[in-house]
Amino acid sequence: xxxxxxxxxxxxxxxxxxxxxxxxxxxxxxxxxxxxxxxxxxxxxxxxxxxxxxx
Length: 55
What we know:
Layout (H helix, E strand, L loop, with lengths): L1 H16 L3 H29 L6
Protein name: UPF0391 membrane protein Tbd_2772
Family: Belongs to the UPF0391 family.
Organism: Thiobacillus denitrificans (strain ATCC 25259 / T1)
């Protein structure tokens, strides 16, 4: 998930350099969304992993 976020961030930076403002904004928004989703997934996995085993 974080790999995709970094990919879209690089696309946003490259598009911004070449003057494609609309594409840069969209790619940056996608990168932010993927980062937040990935961060939420990591936090959920941490919380789920800390539960004691049920017998």
